[in-house]
Amino acid sequence: MYTKKVMEHFMHPRNVGEIKNADGTGEAGNIICGDVMKIYIKVKENKKGEKIISDIKFKTLGCVAAISTSSMITELVKGKTLNHALKITEEKIIESLGGLPPVKTHCSLLATDALKEAIYDYLSKNSLKIPKELVETHKKIEKELKIAEKKHKEVVKYTSKKEGE
Amino acid sequence: MKIIYLDNAATTPVAPEVMEAMKPFFSERFGNASSLHFLGKQAKEALEKSRGKIMKKVNAKEHKLVFTSGGTESNNLALKGTAFANKDKGKHIITTKIEHDCVLNACKWLEKQGFEVTYLSVDREGFVDLNELEESIRKDTILVSIIHGNNEIGTIQDLKEIGKICQEHEVYFHTDACQSFTKVPIDLKKEHIDLLTINSHKIYGPKGVGGLFIRNGIKIDPLSHGGGHEFGLRSGTENVSGIVGFAKATEVIKDKDIKHMTKLRNMLIKGVLEIEDAWLNGPREKRLCNNTNFSFRYIEGEALMLYLDVKGIAASTGSACSSKSLEPSHVLTAIGLKPEDAHGSLRLTLGKDSTEDEIKYTIEVLKQSVDSLRKISPFGNK
Asked: Is residue B321 among the annotated active site residues?
């Protein structure tokens, strides 16, 4: 079902962990489907004066696809400029992993969303200009998170009511 | 690499003696049981001998046994067959929230056809509330269908009590015994069971064979029409080799195997529960002798399953990620698990040939795997 590359990243994920005093952190997830990803980035300027991701770490609760796409995105953007990082698509991650089963392609969105959130966090903390597209993505992720939380609360309410019976 | 097969609730290998019993029916005894010549007679004899053997196993004296292609077909026949044949009595069916998908989806389809279905809830361990069952029976109730041994969490329902209630209220009682057959004694007479689903590939028999016991006199329509095979309830040339194998398979699991599996199951539960933030889903007692189902906080079941897979251990999970619908297991949700806890679930089901060493190894691998995944998880160190 999974490619060798996916399994390799799953069994030996790159850049796992947290960064204390990270310049930006991002979280994405859907507690209903169960996957949650956190990304931590350190940002530096290169010789050309461009902002680059000098270090990146992640933690993911999720399936094989979620963990391997998390690992892959950190490899794809480490040492790259923020602009480059923002252009990484789900398709690019999936392609780099040699493909994902169709039912699992949504997992790669978790990785791009979490990374975008980390960059958004960095830019807003430092009062830097945030690209319009990124603002919209941020709003979308926040909204989805709220829906997911609401849906989750409803399910929990239902199940805890059962406990009381 | 050593292979440790702990997914016996999904399927089992065909036992060597079953294979031997089947062999002649692929070649020299290939006849069609409906043919009138000697080859046909041979096949017919084998068919009826097999039928008799399986009927004896559940004390079926007032029932006929219809051979089908497996559990799914038997359950579909039981539900749709009785529903349509008893339309004049009513349109109400009672089942539970923890049935196999083939029962639940047959019920959902029946709802579309105008039938009404009550889905009984279950307690934390997966047991049906008998009072709720009794209160749910209406004047127009045709059938109560309740799974005997649950395929995910191993809960064994009290057939006798359920049978008694159904008998008192004069509604048909069907039970899906795919997981429990030959592991838990079943007595159609004592337990007042009207319809019973069994299958072959969960008990070391071949795939593609199952059966439905039907009490004589019950009104039931066939799903497939044709030459009138199997009492007119399941047309199509009988799968004689498969049926012979099925009958042989009913002898495979012996008392000593049940004791052996129970012992290993308890050992596995004890070992796995040494892991922090892990628990057993389903009951301790009244549980299938080969079933365990655990939840592990802060990790996801498919990831855990594949960690085991890499180490040669075959397991299964109720995680949403592993399902086609991306929904967590309906059984785990029904016993009150939060979605994220159903997400980190793992089912390990033993076989008669499982060994103590395999279980010890599995516990070790599981401990390491849970630990590794928690190190990756954002909630792993709380």
From this structure: yes
